[in-house]
Specification:
alpha+beta, TIM Barrel, Immunoglobulin-like, eight-stranded parallel β-barrel, seven-stranded antiparallel β-sheet, 12 helices, 14% helix, binds beta-D-galactopyranose, EC 3.2.1.23, apoplast
Length: 838
């Protein structure tokens, strides 16, 4: 067993930690004061205070929600059967400008960890500080680019110095707040780097890459945090002083690189992220449960859901490029923090069962028997007790397995028998209700058209004619290098003299993500990258006037790349061009090496129009009086906060692309005009077989052909009850705000099924004062539709009566499926019940 010296700043009373001894030593646990815990490990588990523990963890990224939401999210995670919360640390959020730090509001990381501690849970601190995470630039600050000699994520002083400075800052903050386990805090594991093993072979510098990853491990260990350091997806060149771990949809067949360390699954992807051009991914509860059960069947003991709550990419934090503002991820808690059923409940049942078998799983002798091809029986035995798993990894064949009795194990499922006789859980049999969430209007004021708008044009003039740029260059620069990502927007402007009038075509080659072209102050063309191709060309006819002509090009980014070998060097903007005018009479004018003037950001950003300060001159005040489909326009409205405590969203259908703020708080970028692609996997769904997010085999997609995101989360903490609230939009491409409306998110329909007589059927409208309004379906053998629209089957009048009596008017109800519900030819199939909540 490996025991770690405790964090060096602990002020608790404790026996001297064996700092000088080599790590690979078997040591007894040390008793400490003030709730401090020792964290060690062996080949079976993480060992906390001498006890081998099963760690069931969930990722909740603190900046993707608000501090006001954190306690509720953490409580729901705990009630969902987790004992640990995991998060990355968001370097470019904490240090947006070099040595200017932000630890306020949703970046108050210490407060987040204190909430975890308060809930009595453990924590995993994934510092990175490269974090990927569909986060802008993978979490790395773009200002790193300005440091001479900087090479990202390789062995070089400039990078390593900055990485160490930030890592130490975070560690010290955590130590000061006594957040490490040895200090009595919740943190039991910490991570350095992220999935470096996936890309290190492609960096064309093996030696530097290997030196760097060893430097990372040494630097981390020097921090003396008293808990083990992990490194995910680092299967080769694994430093001796870290634990390598697995990320993926499945990790049962993966084992760590050496003996003596536990099998840790740092990212079990509960769904997938969404991009503006993609539909919504869904990973079924059955498949996630299958993957988790397989992992514990095969000696896993530490498992983290990525994501347990995905949340929202507020501000300019989404990465990609092209990740949507919603980071819902199809996680067990939805973007707004609501419980997603049946995923949440089905996994909760599994967690509770696994934790009840903890001792046997982490101590037991184990024995795997191949029952048939792809069918395995695993028996763990400890202290005279046994638990069994039966896994059926066949995609489409159910099998009968005899173990005590004969058990039918459906295709692609695992049965768990805590006494090796009776099946307590099968991953394919869902006992939890399905909840369908709706976005509802609560009052007349929330109907489209009810909001009164005023507007203001973005002042484009400064960059159409005069010379007020920040600097000049006879080169077309990469946008990230030129402006270090302080805004989405970068102006490039040049001028040329022309004899007489002339008709041309303007060609702009750009590396994306979008471009607007103006000639002599007039918008002449716009384009954005599509289908994942970020290199594209704008082609548009233009007229030149006699004399001086101005060509102003506005380049916009939509989240910087966050993943891949040398991702940081992937250019954005009109890097290198060329930019050309091709004359209708055959004359070409190459502007690539003209004198270009640069300016980052828009005038309205500099004036902070989103803060709605006094002195801003808004025009108009009614729906008819505002311009629509006008590019580069600011809009403002005031609204009452919807009553109650359900999550609030704003429906921005009708708008095109831009950014939104409520009471000065950013809701993120919006782009409802972007339609999600129709692709393979849009209209097929089967939980059986390996889940994939890319390539062939993708399935269960929804929202195909629809706006990829029309609803934007307005956290309750952004709103003021009983006072007017302000919504400000910056519409960049031209849209119609008059259709915008506020909604609340609530449980609409709830469904549950009972396979056998004796089963309980529980239905809940999810709190917030919602009750069952009516029972729509109580039928056997329902064949068509999904929850909210079930059809077919054979209605049981007795069941309908029983559910109506027990449920209508109530927030939740439980009814036992009795033999009395059958009759009238209604014997076959499961009993399915669907109710409406209001
Ligand atoms: C992993 C990465 C995470 C996240 C995930 C996909 O490769 O470590 O940060 O990007 O993929 O959601």
């Amino acid at each position: 067993m490996v025991l770690f010296p405790r964090a060096s700043v602990s002020r608790c009373t404790m026996a001297a930690a064996p700092l000088a001894l080599p790590l690979l030593l078997v040591l007894a646990a040390i008793t400490t004061g003030c709730g401090a815990a020792t964290v060690a490990y062996n080949d079976r588990a993480v060992v906390i205070d001498g006890q081998r523990r099963i760690i069931l963890s969930g990722s909740i990224h603190y900046p993707r929600s608000t501090p006001e939401m954190w306690p509720d999210l953490i409580r729901k995670a705990k009630e969902g059967g987790l004992n640990t919360i995991e998060t990355y640390v968001f370097w470019n959020g904490h240090e947006p400008r070099r040595r200017q730090y932000n630890f306020e509001g949703n970046y108050d990381i210490v407060r987040f960890f204190k909430e975890i501690q308060h809930a009595g849970m453990y924590a995993i601190l994934r510092i990175g500080p490269y974090i990927c995470g569909e986060w802008n630039y993978g979490g790395l600050p773009a200002w790193l680019r300005n440091i001479p000699g900087m090479q990202f994520r390789l062995h070089n002083d400039p990078f390593e110095r900055e990485m160490e400075t930030f890592t130490t800052l975070i560690v010290d903050k955590m130590k000061d707040a006594k957040m490490f386990a040895g200090q009595g805090g919740p943190i039991i594991l910490a991570q350095i780097e992220n999935e470096y093993g996936n890309i290190m072979g492609e960096l064309n510098n093996n030696q530097s890459a290997s030196q760097y990853i060893h430097w990372c491990a040494d630097m981390a260990n020097k921090q003396k945090i008293g808990v083990p350091w992990i490194m995910c997806q680092q299967n080769h060149h694994v430093p001796h002083n870290v634990i390598n771990t697995c990320n993926g949809f499945y990790c049962h067949d993966w084992f760590p690189n050496r003996t003596g360390i536990p099998k840790i699954w740092t990212e079990n992807w509960t769904g997938w992220f969404k991009a503006w051009d993609k539909p919504d991914f869904h990973r079924s509860a059955e498949d996630i449960a299958f993957a988790v059960a397989r992992f514990f069947q095969k000696r896993g003991s530490v498992q983290n859901y990525y994501m347990y709550h995905g949340g929202t990419n507020f501000g300019r934090t989404s990465g990609g490029p092209y990740i949507t503002t919603s980071y819902d991820y199809d996680a067990p808690l939805d973007e707004y923090g609501n419980i997603r059923q049946p995923k949440y409940g089905h996994l909760k049942d599994l967690h509770n069962l696994l934790r009840s078998m903890e001792k046997i799983l982490v101590h037991g002798e184990h024995n795997d028997t191949a029952y048939a091809k792809n069918v395995t029986v695993t028996k763990y035995t400890y202290g005279g007790s046994s638990v069994c798993f039966i896994s059926n990894q066949l995609n489409d064949t159910d099998v009968n397995v005899t173990l005590g009795a004969t058990h039918l194990v459906p295709a692609w499922s695992v049965s768990i028998l805590p006494d090796c006789k009776t099946v307590a859980y099968n991953t394919a049999k869902i006992k939890t209700q399905t909840s369908v969430m709706v976005k509802k209007a609560n009052t007349v004021e929330e109907e489209p058209g009810a909001l009164r708008w005023s507007w203001m044009p973005e002042n484009l003039r400064p960059f159409m004619t005069d010379d007020r740029g920040s600097f000049r260059k006879t080169q077309l620069l990469d946008q990230i290098a030129a402006a270090t990502d302080q805004s989405d927007y970068l102006w490039y402007r040049t001028s040329l003299e022309h004899k007489g009038e002339g008709a041309y075509k303007l060609y702009v080659n750009t590396t994306g993500h979008e471009i607007y072209a103006f000639v002599n102050g007039k918008l002449v063309g716009q384009n954005h990258s599509a289908n994942g191709a970020f290199v594209f060309q704008l082609e548009t006819p233009v007229k030149l006037q006699s004399g001086k002509n101005y060509i102003s090009l506005l380049s916009g980014t939509v989240g910087l790349k966050n993943y891949g070998p040398l991702f940081e060097l992937m250019p954005a903007g009109i890097a290198g061009g060329p930019v050309k005018l091709v004359g209708t009479n055959g004359t070409d004018i190459d502007l690539t090496n003209s004198s270009w003037s640069y300016k980052s950001g828009l005038a309205g950003e500099q004036r902070q129009i989103h803060l709605d300060k006094a002195g801003h001159k808004w025009r108009g005040h009614n729906s008819s009086g505002i311009p629509v489909n006008r590019p580069f326009t600011w809009y403002k409205t005031s609204f009452a906060a919807p009553a109650g405590d359900e999550a609030v969203v704003v429906d921005l259908l009708g708008l095109n692309k831009g950014a939104a703020w409520v009471n000065g708080h950013s809701l993120g970028r919006y782009w409802p005009a972007y339609t999600a692609a129709e692709m393979g996997g849009c209209h097929v769904c089967d939980y059986r077989g390996e889940f994939k997010a890319e390539g062939g085999g993708v399935r269960c997609l929804t929202g195909c052909g629809e706006p990829s995101q029309r609803f934007y989360h307005v956290p309750r903490a952004f709103l003021r009850a009983g006072e007017p609230n302000t919504l400000v939009l910056f519409e960049e491409a031209g849209g119609d705000p008059t259709r915008a409306a506020f909604r609340t998110v609530a449980v609409g329909a709830v469904c549950a099924a009972a396979a056998e007589v004796g089963d309980d059927v529980t239905l809940s409208c999810g709190g917030h004062g919602r009750v069952v309004a009516g029972v729509d379906v109580a039928s056997f053998g329902v064949t068509r539709g999904s929850c909210g629209g079930y059809e077919g089957g054979c209605e049981s009048k007795a069941a309908l009566k029983a559910f109506t009596a027990a449920c209508v008017g109530r927030e939740s109800c439980t009814v036992k499926h009795t033999g009395a519900f059958a009759g009238a030819g209604c014997e076959s199939g499961a009993l399915t019940v669907q109710v409406t909540c209001s």
